[in-house]
Amino acid sequence: MSWQFATFAGLAAVLVCGFAWFERSRPSSRLVALVAALAALAVAGRLVLAPIPNVVATTDIALITGYALGAAPGFAVGALAAPISNLWLGQGPWTPWEMAGWGLVGLAGAALARVTGRRLGRVGMACACGLAGLAYGALMDLSLMVTYGGEQSLDRFLALSARGVPFNVAHAAGNFALALAAGPALV
Questions:
Q1: Cα 64 from Cα 128, distance rounded (Å)
Q2: Are 94 and 146 in contact (CB under 8 A)?
């Protein structure tokens, strides 16, 4: 089994298990409606900010959903935002990676709520959203290396990540600013 195949199998497992977990939790119709509304907000936040490279509200909304509603809804909001927004922005081999990345951001939001007892202030939430943007960027850098082939090594990953630093910094800074401005209202 190749490293590339194992990575794609892991990606598929994350997506299948995440959606199965949400479905098996038997969410109430009220929660399903809230998840749908938040996913739509995440899509709108991505589309409205599309002219600004790598500044998206999707990461913030996924993290805050996980923080406020729990891990399964956070995953669902993040994972749904990518394929829906890509109906306008373009589907491609990056879409499953975006789904997994934003879904995992939703899980991180739930973990953050558990660790902090949901007592994280405005600045703490903004810092968490900024860090989530950097982690999401690292995953997307990995997706570039795995999806498009070539040597699979730490050196190549670091080279690809170095090329993406301006984009990842823009993503983190945008997440920080958006969470600073709107984070408490979303929670």
A1: 10
A2: no
